[in-house]
Specification:
- There is one protein chain.
- This protein is an alpha+beta fold.
- 32% of the residues lie in helices and 29% in strands.
- The strands form 3 sheets. Strands 7, 8, 9, 10, 12 and 15 form a 6-stranded mixed sheet that branches. A 5-stranded mixed sheet has the order 5-14-6-13-11. The protein has a 4-stranded antiparallel sheet with strand order 1-2-3-4, sandwiched between helices.
- It is globular and about 50 Å long.
């Protein structure tokens, strides 16, 4: 078994795991982590044909995504620390659900609805919203501490034009960014402070990011909890269509925080 920082794997080993997982809208975050080396990984078996793989992206710490055989995946989870939930496809969730509950307490299941944008994004603007520069992404203060993910990820995304922010009197009050991309897809994450929700900020920020992604020849991906009706509404407004559903199994003592996956709209 391999358990390590992704950066400790060779480039060849990472490519093998990417090929095994496959590039799909629902795997864009873990594929990006594997390519960049930003995160943690556990592998049961050889990287070219493993029994199970568990990948945790730096973008969503504590929320790894699992693949492969159910019993092998449970073994990886047992040997992994600092996680609150695991994301798997529906069939795998059903396969491991009972054993998961016996080990970590009755699991709460949260459905993650994955969307893809295949048509030109609908254009929306807002007076507070603009494309952020890398310097602004690093230095501007935020109205809430968890408004942005790791600032290094934000600056890297801003460097290629994929971060839009709502800036009010020099303070970021909402943002959308693409902090994870594969060779085909690019994830879109959105977070707006409570005081600025329902005012078109999320829609305008996300519209700008989707335009930047499409200009680069990639397909935007939007994933959000089935419980987040506001986020689902923004996705529909922009033209996204559902392509897949995954399940978060939240361990008995853990909490699922929608903002941790940057979908608080």
């Amino acid at each position: 078994m391999v358990r390590a920082a992704i950066s400790e794997l060779s480039a060849h080993q990472r490519r093998l795991v990417v090929n095994w997982i496959g590039e799909r809208p629902e795997t864009v975050i873990v594929v990006a982590a594997l390519r960049s080396g930003a995160g943690r990984i556990s592998i049961d078996g050889d990287p070219s044909a493993p029994s199970a793989v568990l990948v945790e992206s730096l973008l969503v710490p504590g929320e790894p995504q699992g693949f492969g055989d159910g019993q092998a995946l449970l073994g990886l989870l047992i040997d992994t620390d600092r996680w609150t939930c695991v994301e798997v496809d529906d069939s795998l969730a059903q396969q491991i659900g009972e054993d998961f509950a016996r080990r970590w307490g009755r699991a709460r299941s949260v459905v993650d609805i994955i969307h893809e944008l295949n048509e030109p994004v609908a254009v929306y603007e807002h007076p507070l919203v603009r494309q952020l520069t890398p310097t602004e992404a690093l230095e501007l203060s935020t109205e809430e501490d968890d408004l942005l993910p790791d600032r290094r990820l934000v600056a890297a995304a801003a460097d290629v034009g994929r971060v839009y922010g709502a800036v009010d009197d020099g303070v970021i009050v909402g943002q959308a960014g693409s902090f994870a991309a594969s060779s085909v897809f690019a994830d879109v994450g959105v977070h707006v402070t409570a005081a600025h929700r329902g005012k078109g900020v999320a829609t305008a920020c996300a519209s700008g990011v989707c335009r930047a992604i499409q200009d680069d020849g990639l397909r935007p991906v939007w994933g959000t909890s089935s419980e987040n009706t506001a986020s689902l509404g923004v996705a529909r407004k922009l033209g996204f269509v559902e392509t897949a559903r995954l399940t978060f199994l939240v361990r008995g003592s853990g909490e699922f925080n929608a903002s941790s996956t940057l979908r608080t709209v």
